[in-house]
Amino acid sequence: MSYDDDLVDVDRDSLHVLPLRILPLATPALRRAKLIKNVRLKSVVELFTNADSGSGQLEIEDLSKEFNWDVADPPADLVMMRQLGLLPSYDVYSLRISLRDLGINIENVSDLKLSDEKNKELTSYMTDFTRPLIQHIYGSDELEISSFQDVVKLFRDPDVKKALGKIQQMSQMLEIKPDEIPKFMEDYGDIFLSLSYYRQCLDSIEPIITEFLDAMDELRDNYQFKTDQNLMQTINHIEATINERMAAVTGRFENFERGTKHMWDKISADRFRKVESLISSYHLSIGGVLCALSVKMEAWSRLFPNKHSGGPGRRAEFIMSEMKQGIDNIVKIDDAAPMLSVLE
Questions:
Q1: Phi (first) and psi of residue 2, to 5 degrees
Q2: 78 found inside a domain
């Protein structure tokens, strides 16, 4: 099937899919396509997908042939596609930063927000961030909360005298008017929703990574391949890369949780904006790492859904032909964003 103009939730919530209809492109056929990361972590244009014929993909540089563009004088669409092809992730939080840096304006800002369904899924993750706030204002975290919008409603229409006093106090600390608190809370919710989104992405691939690494151990012990030095070196490199990046991302989350646990004990406008800025500064890095790992792991899981699917030969072939391609892109992703500990 070819793509229509609807922005489906699965694309909106994806790390590795960019529906091109949200961009100011002049080529109608291109606006109906998607930019995706393939298993080799290369950005390609997906013109259509079909359960029978698979995915119709084009290299970005092949667009000039498809649309009869002059490469000596490339149109704005080709220039934009080349820029987008270099981005490490297509999740909404990374895109907000990258598109702004590239000077690419989005007509509908809601296209860079997670779907309602994803927001509901992330409620349990958001609890860690909303509990300290609700305790600070209401003195309890036993209130009925099913989404962050419920938290915002608590501040739009507080029904406890103690809460009203706390909100007045909070408005003074944040240097904003009481009626501006709901808008502030929406900003607060969005920045911590981003952490919840990335945390869920991490949790979803961890079991697959564990299975993948177990499969690598089995290949090391396989009598047919244990003397294949090229394969062994590739396996070791892939394993080391995955372990290193997973440790870095997990460590970053632990730092976020420690750094924000007592944020409301000494909140100020300046402190919150610094927290917001620090978390945002890590979006490109964490998004890029999780995008790369999820694409690799999902490809492996599709081909080998359980430990008995495929044989050692097929697995070794897939590692050498697909899994190792682009793996060094993960290593290059920068994680030099400052730690929240600088606020202490």
A1: -90, 165
A2: yes
β-pairing verdict for 17-19 and 43-50:
unpaired
Pairing of strands 43-50, 54-59: antiparallel
Cα–Cα–Cα angle for 329, 335, 340, rounded to 5 degrees: 160
Residue 35: exposed, middle, or buried by beta-carbon count in 10 A (0-12, 13-18, 19+)? buried
Please indicate, yes or no, if residue 120 is contained in any of the structural domains: no
Total domains, the chain: 2
Among the ranges given (125-139, 148-162, 221-235), the one the predictor scored with the smallest mean pLDDT: 148-162
Token pair for residue 31?
A: 């606006």
Higher pLDDT, 270 or 295: 295
- The one-letter amino acid code at 231 reads L
Beta carbons within 8 Å of 14's beta carbon, 6+ residues apart: 90, 91
Q: What is the pLDDT of residues 253-262, one digit of tens each?
A: 888 888 777 7
- Structural domain that includes position 30: 9-112
What CA–CA distance (Å, rounded) separates 288 from 191?
A: 17
The verdict on 106 and 210 lying in the same domain is no
Choose the final residue of a domain: 84, 112, 140.
112
* 23: in domain: yes
1-47 tens-digit pLDDT: 344 445 789 999 999 999 999 999 999 999 999 999 999 999 999 98
User: Whole-number mean pLDDT of the chain?
Assistant: 86
